[in-house]
Amino acid sequence: MGVSLSKGGNVSLTKEAPGLKAIMVGLGWDAKTEGVSGEEFDLDAVLFMCGEDGKVTKDEDFVFYNNPKSVDGSVVHQGDNRTGEGEGDDEKVLINLADVPANITKLAVAVTIDKADERGQNFGQVSNAFMRVVNVDGDVELARFDLGEDFSTETAVIFGEIYRNGADWKFKAIGQGFPGGLSPLATAFGVDM
Hints:
By secondary structure, the protein is mainly beta. Helix content is 8%, strand content 42%. The strands form 2 sheets. It has a 6-stranded mixed β-sheet with strand order 1-10-9-3-7-6, with no helix packed on it.
């Protein structure tokens, strides 16, 4: 079991796992209810590869179900789980840390609710949401952040950041709600929508 973080907490991934080369970011959740329309929730993991200014360096640095692989191949989204059914990780992103370009200083990981407004859905209707970071070598969980907060109006949440600190990689638990869903979130990270 990895280090369990509270909102704002961080951990050095490379100190937890010396020689760390690749990680899997797993995200999971359960829907408490169906939306107003009676439709199931479709939550989507997204990742922003950011430079020093906290923004993407190019639109292709936005990795999600419609752009599942970064141009350099260092970040690969493992597919869209449209229902969140089952135990464990609902969506996964593989990151080869050694291949992340030097100008990328932070990988921001968020989850959005697809068609949230039209379905009357928000993160207040989601429970057991978490983000975990796993060392691909040996499948060992290094860190975990259980969201735990009730985001009753937000339709997107920035779960955490994986960032460089000198030669080390660290994970910070963010837990920041964001209104408006995917488009405003992506725009805030500099993606031209």
